[in-house]
Amino acid sequence: YQQYKKNKSNCGRRPLVLPEEQSEYIQRKVVQGWTPDVIVGRAAFPISCSARTIYRMFKKGLFDSSDLPMKGKRKPNGHQERRGKQTFRRSIHEREKDYSQFSNEFGHLEGDTIVGLKHKSAVITLVERLSKVIITLKPCGRQAIDIEKKLNQWFESVPKNLFKSITFDCGKEFSNWKQISNV
């Protein structure tokens, strides 16, 4: 049984160990603000592993992840949000059919949200297409009802004919777009 355990411990893939000069180089560049992707792509000498492997080394604790630009916070590979899809949504190309002068006309907004730390709060950004003016609004929360309330409140403070169309991305927070578009 002991021989079996010894042989079994020799099975499997060996963990990758970087040479000392490469690991020092990686740590030095990360402290300077470089990401592992940039380190592998622009290294002064060839690095013997990929950027994904370097990220895994950060995750295992071989390097200090607090020096990374994103402080080691990354979504798991391949993660996509599958909850709360919008059922009735309009394509971005439909508004070009509705407004023939869409690209040359003032008053067409595009909306998105920026989610805050710990996913508790959000900021609504509205960009006017022609002038590239950015309007930012701070709702109470980041649910669809909070976004709807804040947008309705803002629309009441601007002249009715100032904006002709507003297009949101397909996020869950804009699922009440029909109520907003009827204002």
TrEMBL record:
Cellular component GO terms, alphabetical: cytosol
InterPro entries found in the cross-reference section: Transposase-Integrase, Transposase_IS30-like
GO biological process, one term: transposition
Chain positions covered by the region annotation Disordered: 67-90
Molecular function as annotated in GO: transposase activity
Entries under PANTHER family matching the protein: TRANSPOSASE, TRANSPOSASE INSI FOR INSERTION SEQUENCE ELEMENT IS30A-RELATED
Name of the protein described by the UniProt record: IS30 family transposase
Species name: Enterococcus faecium
